[in-house]
Write a structure and sequence with these properties.
Blueprint (H helix, E strand, L loop, with lengths): L4 E4 L18 H11 L5 E7 L4 E4 L1 H7 L3 H4 L14 H15 L2 E10 L5 E12 L5 E10 L1 H19 L3 E5 L5 E4 L1 H7 L3 H4 L4 H4 L8 H11 L1 E9 L5 E13 L2 E10 L1 H15 L9 H13 L4 E8 L3 H7 L1 H18 L5 E6 L2 E7 L2 H16 L2 E3 L2 E3 L3 E8 L6 H17 L5 E3 L9 H15 L3 E10 L5 E12 L3 E3 L1 H11 L1 H22 L6 E5 L2 H4 L4 H12 L6 E6 H5 L2 H14 L2 E7 L5 H5 L6 E4 L11 H16 L3 E5 L4 H9 L4 E3 L9 H10 L6 H5 L5 E5 L3 H11 L5 E5 L2 H10 L4 E4 L8 H11 L4 E6 L4 H9 L5 E4 L4 H68 L5 E4 L5 E4 L1 H7 L10 H4 L2 H6 L5 E5 L2 E10 L5 E8 L6
Parallel strand pairs: 17-18, 20-22, 22-23, 23-24, 24-25, 25-26, 26-27, 28-29, 28-30, 30-31, 31-32
Antiparallel strand pairs: 1-4, 2-3, 2-6, 4-5, 5-6, 7-8, 7-11, 9-10, 10-11, 12-14, 12-17, 13-14, 15-16, 19-20, 19-27, 20-21, 33-34, 33-37, 35-36, 36-37
Helix pairs in contact: 12-13, 13-14, 16-17, 17-18, 18-20, 20-22
Length: 974
């Protein structure tokens, strides 16, 4: 709608001047009417007098309001129907009429009503016409329908608003690259005011487009009509913005421009990065995850450079989550991730594959990888403080390298895992390089796995039994059940070949249950056959040891077979106990409570032996074959074995050495008080029938063997003067003792560590450490030794103190008397042997006491059970007595020997029985006629003035004898 305007009309405009008249229209007026009628159907026109009264309206105006001339002629123009629909237009007309009376023309847009009720937008004008005298005599109103123009302008305005308020940046670009228009979003995107932007061209904001390239870009738009592409735009502050550009060619006549829509991609790029982060990176640590690891490892291997893959897993991390909480565990994982990243090169890849497992990929040789792995072990092992908690962690690392161990990502990862498993077997906190063919790639192993499942199903497995021999009496005291597999076509398959397969596949649980059942059944069969009692020992697997119902199932098997629990034992290895120590202890305690013996197998091969042994409910310690020495073994090896035996005995445990392969080994073990042994020297593992034959034949070791090989008496001489030592050796040579000598206390302590010393004879004054100090040290380390001082100096106080505290047995003076010195030393050896014998007897007494305590415990259990049974039986008898007393007829009981053992209250009253009738002969207390009824004959007799039927019945079952019931004859009177 155009803005209203007024313009004055010249008073003497000949073209618009008519003579004023009040008569019927004359020629000029008629001509004017004709002109107004011919203006067209969309032009409203009329004639008003000077005061605004309608004198004429053309047909177009009348049709609009569907009126006849007489309805509007003579009426003031502003009161006619045209103006009734819009008060604003009516008021504007009234102002125009007033202006026209003053000779001023007016033109403005108005809204007029039609007969249909519609509103038309009209371009209205009001012109004054002057008479000859120069006064306004006529007013000519005219209006043209501009509704379509108004609508178009409205739509254009809406479009402009839409463009201005659009979120996407919109631009108009001319063929020269200049910006013709831009909305607010475009200005915000580029950080420019609209005026600033319209002074620029495309190369000013698009770094990829220069002046020389723009014409080619415009030609491409003209050829294709539209283009879409991604690019970057330069912000006013200098940084670049990723955008998606859609450009369309707009042509109107000879004019063309590009309409460009720009979508800011920063949020989309951020979302894509976030999605990629979630898909390819670990959320907790921010490290690449399993998928990205596979992609990058594959790309690294394609490059062909030597590559190392390190798989790092935290040791026993579950205890952190369980003991301190998941939030502490998560914080620890983040800290470990940071330490790993800090411990490798920036070009190396560090990924978290899941849980507490990390993978490092590095272009490096195996030696470089080992060096890095060792540094990572140290880094992870450093204490970390999390929320006030000090956390200690270690890790194990497996390493595989390419191309030596494979050239595919999955192969290297699998073989690094195999190396990791080996590192754990080495005791954790270790690194291990992959070596050998992987089990997963071994076709024979896969075939064995399938065959093992069939073997379990088809009963191909069997048990052999290796005898265990007592080293005091030489007889067989037990057997260890060992699993054997004889395949129909493959023949004998060694346990070390198929047992690992069973453990990895989970078959070990079913196999372990089978072994337990068969071993217990075989031991029960030997027990029923009357063979000498021996203990059956079966090995438990790690998976069996964590089963919650282990003790209950073994108890059920023992009860079903009838085997005495004291004749059954289980063997576990210390490596099985470490991960679930508390749970394993509970299971073993439950087994010991049943009477089952618990043995700790392979003792001495694990790193936790000494710290855990004291807490374990163990009866027998089995020394691993690698620690079983021979008589020719170095002294330090013997000392290790002796130390293990001594430690076990002090903990009230028996010691069994396995893998004994020679007579010398057996003799040395016996000399060092080892309790039992097993090994090829006595017998290999045999089938059940062969063991039964061995037991029936009474095969054993000749006890005299151990007597002949008893240990030689050993004397240690300590003096800093070599001539004194030489004189003593000459003096004592004929005694047949093993004589060791040392010229200093340090040498003496070294000899004591390597040899079992019976008697020590030491000088007092020596450099570094006096004899008294040495013997005090010897007493602390080796209290069984007999310690004497031989000195020419009488430091009375220190020697007296040493004697009083037991560090010195005797003080002998230099120079010595040969006979007296020999006598004193013989006495010392005798005392030592007596003490050794007393210790052996003490151990035997303790063992016997343990056995006796177990027997007493079992007797107490049986006694308690018997007492409860007796109480129940007494209660049952009392209840039966009360019940029979309540029966209204006499009832008597007589045992097989004819003794009266029972009579209820009615019977006692009827027969006149006194208090001492029980246990008496029935013939003495009962009428003779009743005795016939005891034989089963029903008789009728009179007693106490009443007729009775006497009925006797024989009792069977636990109650033996006869029951006599007296029934009153119906209708009989007393």
């Amino acid at each position: 709608m155009s803005n209203p305007s007024s313009s004055p009309v010249p008073h003497r405009d000949a073209a618009l001047t008519l003579g004023a008249t009040n008569q019927q229209p004359r020629g000029p007026e008629l001509s004017l009417h004709e002109v107004l009628d011919r203006l067209g159907p969309s032009v409203f026109a009329g004639l008003l007098d000077a005061d605004g009264t309608v004198r004429y309206a053309n047909q177009a105006a009348l049709r609009a309001i569907d009126s006849a001339p007489e309805h509007v002629l003579g009426r003031r123009f502003d009161t006619t129907p045209w103006w009734q629909g819009c008060e604003v237009s009516q008021r504007r007309l009234q102002q125009a009429l007033a202006s026209a009376a003053r000779g001023e023309a007016s033109r403005f847009d108005v809204r007029v009503a039609t007969s249909s009720g519609a509103m038309l937008v009209m371009d209205f004008s009001l012109l004054p016409l002057y008479g000859p005298d120069g006064r306004v005599v006529w007013l000519i109103p005219s209006a043209r329908d501009v509704s379509e123009r108004e609508h178009a302008q409205h739509q254009l305005l809406l479009t402009r608003h839409a463009v201005e308020q659009a979120n996407d940046a919109l631009l108009q670009i001319g063929p020269d690259g200049a910006f013709h228009d831009a909305n607010a979003a475009a200005c915000r995107l580029l950080g420019l005011e609209r005026a600033e932007l319209l002074r620029l061209r495309v190369p000013d904001i698009a770094p990829q487009v220069d002046e020389a390239q723009w014409p080619q870009r415009w030609r491409e738009l003209c050829e294709h009509g539209s283009l879409r592409f991604e690019t970057r735009l330069r912000h006013h502050e200098g940084y670049e913005i990723p955008v998606d550009v859609s450009a369309s060619l707009v042509t109107s006549g000879d004019t063309s421009f590009g309409h460009v829509c720009i979508d800011d991609l920063r949020e989309r790029r951020a979302a894509e990065r976030r999605i990629r982060q979630l898909l390819l990176f670990d959320e907790l640590t921010g490290l690449p995850n399993r998928q990205l690891l596979s992609e990058r490892l594959g790309a690294t291997l394609q490059a062909g450079a030597p590559t190392a893959v390190l798989v790092l897993e935290l040791d026993r991390f579950k205890r952190i989550n369980d003991g301190l909480g998941l939030h502490i565990g998560d914080a620890a994982l983040r800290e470990v991730a940071q330490r790993i990243v800090a411990g490798v090169r920036s070009v190396d890849l560090v990924a978290r594959r899941g849980g507490d497992e990390f993978v490092i990929v590095m272009v490096a040789t195996s030696a470089e990888a080992l060096h890095t792995a060792q540094a990572l072990l140290d880094a992870v092992a450093r204490p970390m403080v999390i929320e006030g908690q000090e956390v200690h962690l270690t890790c194990s690392i497996g390493i595989a390298t390419a191309p030596a161990d494979g050239d595919r990502a999955e192969t290297l990862l699998r073989r690094a895992n195999a190396a990791l498993h080996q590192a754990k077997l080495l005791g954790r906190n270790q690194t291990s390089l992959y070596a050998g063919a992987p089990q997963d790639d071994d076709p024979e192993r896969l075939a064995l796995e399938t065959a093992l499942r069939q073997a379990l199903r088809d009963e191909q497995l069997e048990l052999h039994y290796q005898p265990q021999v007592d080293l005091v009496q030489g007889r067989i005291v037990g057997v260890e059940a060992l699993l054997r597999w004889q395949h129909p076509t493959l023949g004998h398959i060694a346990p070390d070949r198929f047992i690992p397969i069973a453990e990895e596949t989970g078959l070990i649980v079913a196999i372990g249950d089978w072994v337990l059942r068969r071993a217990i059944e075989q031991a029960a069969a030997w027990q029923r056959a009357g063979l000498p009692p021996l203990r059956m020992a079966a090995n438990l697997s790690a998976r069996q040891l964590v089963q919650p119902d282990l003790a209950r199932r073994i108890e059920g098997l023992l009860a079903a077979s009838g085997l005495d629990p004291r004749l059954f034992g289980v063997e576990v290895t210390e490596s099985m106990l470490i991960n679930n120590f508390d749970q394993a202890v509970q299971h073993l305690q439950a087994l010991r409570a049943l009477g089952v013996e618990v043995s700790l197998d392979d003792f001495g091969t694990g790193y936790s032996s000494l710290s855990y042994l004291r807490r374990l409910p163990v009866d027998v310690v089995k020394i691993d074959r690698s620690l079983v020495p021979d008589v020719t073994a170095p002294a330090e090896d013997v000392s290790i074995t002796r130390a293990i035996i001594t430690m076990a005995h002090q903990l009230q445990m028996k010691v069994l050495a396995e893998g004994v392969e020679s007579e010398g080994q057996a003799a040395l073990l016996a000399a060092n008080q080892c309790d039992q042994m097993q090994g090829y020297w006595f017998s290999t593992a045999l089938p059940a029938a062969a063991v039964e034959t061995m037991l029936r034949d009474g095969r054993q070791i000749d006890p005299a063997l151990f007597g002949r090989r008893s240990r030689q008496r050993t004397l240690l001489l300590v003096d800093d003067e070599e001539n004194v030592l030489a004189a003593l050796r000459r003096l004592l040579r004929a005694e047949g003792w093993l004589i060791l000598s040392a010229t200093s206390a340090e040498q003496a302590l070294q000899l004591m560590a390597r040899h079992e010393i019976d008697v020590i004879l030491s000088d007092q004054r020596m450099p570094g450490m006096t004899g008294v100090e040495l013997l005090r040290r010897a007493r602390q380390l080796y209290p069984e030794t007999i310690r004497l001082v031989l000195s020419g100096y009488t430091e009375l106080q220190s020697i007296t103190d040493a004697i009083n505290e037991g560090a010195i047995y005797k003080f002998l003076a230099k120079p010595w008397d040969d006979a007296e010195l020999r006598a004193h030393l013989r006495e010392a050896f005798t005392l030592k042997e007596m003490a050794d014998q007393n210790r052996r007897l003490d151990r035997e007494v303790q063992a016997a006491n343990r056995d006796l305590a177990e027997v007493n415990q079992r007797l107490q259990t049986l006694l308690s059970a018997q007492r409860e049974q007796n109480q129940r039986e007494v209660g049952s008898r009392e209840a039966a007595q009360e019940l029979l007393d309540a029966v209204p007829v006499p009832v008597l009981g007589v045992d097989d020997e004819g003794l009266l053992v029972f009579a209820n209250a009615p019977a006692q009253a009827l027969c006149g029985l006194g208090g001492g009738f029980l246990g008496g002969a029935a013939t003495e207390h009962l009428p003779p006629k009743l005795m016939r009824a005891l034989d089963g004959e029903s008789i009728l007799f009179t007693l106490a003035g009443r007729r009775w039927w006497a009925v006797g019945r024989h009792l069977i079952g636990n109650a033996r004898g006869r029951l006599l019931v007296l029934l009153p004859q119906a209708g009989a009177s007393k």
